[in-house]
Amino acid sequence: MSTSLNTRWQAWLATRAPRERLVLQSAAWLLLAALIWSLAIAPAWRVLQAAPAKQAALLPQLHQMRAMATEAKTLQQSESARPPGWSERLRTLESTTQRLLKDQAQLSPAGEQVTVTVTLRDATPTALAQWLQETRVNAHLRPTRVQLERSGAAGAWRWQGTLVLGDPNGAGT
């Protein structure tokens, strides 16, 4: 079919004057070049131009993910060592709570078990997040049950409720 179309195009073009033939061939080549540009080259060109900006936008995420991976490896290595005793965990938790949450939290240890109930009153999100991280890393305790409620206006959120912290490995004293 394409040879038939090409033959007809050549026959039709042969009936035209030389100058008209040149204009028609030039127009066909120009149309073909525009088609190739719009379908193949322009999209790739736009992607190449946008790549540095996208890379710069994703770089902080990459750094954050690498830092989290390093932290995870450190935690895995530290958890493989013998965890601190219950009294040491409780002292660490009390000092962290006093330092970060002050009077916004109340601890209720459950005897000699590695379980602590924490009651929050108007804790800021930043203080709560930092407290949770330090509790996980330093006291080797993680939330096992959480019942929190957010209050306040956007930008000034406060958290209240209870968290039950426990040993992730289920170890006792």
Structural description of this entry:
The protein has four helices and four strands, in the order αααββαββ. It has 173 residues and is an alpha+beta fold. A four-stranded antiparallel sheet has the order 1-2-4-3, with helices on one face. α3 packs antiparallel against α4.
Compact overview of the structure:
It is built from four helices and four strands, in the order H-H-H-E-E-H-E-E. The protein has helices at 2-14, 18-80, 86-100, 125-138; strands at 105-109, 115-123, 142-151, 158-166.
SSE topology string: HHHEEHEE
For the terminal residues, how far apart are their CA atoms?
Answer: 85 Å
**Order of adjacent strands in the largest pleated sheet:** 1-2-4-3
Share of residues in helices: 55-70%
Low-pLDDT parts are none
Q: State which percent range the strand residues make up.
A: 15-25%
The quaternary structure here is single chain
| Average pLDDT reading | 83
* Largest sheet data: 4 strands, antiparallel
Rg value: 34 Å
Structural class: alpha+beta
Shape: rod-shaped
Total number of beta strands: 4
Counting H and I runs of at least 4 residues, what is the number of helices?
A: 4
Q: Keyphrases for this structure?
A:
173 residues, alpha+beta, four-stranded antiparallel sheet, 19% strand, rod-shaped
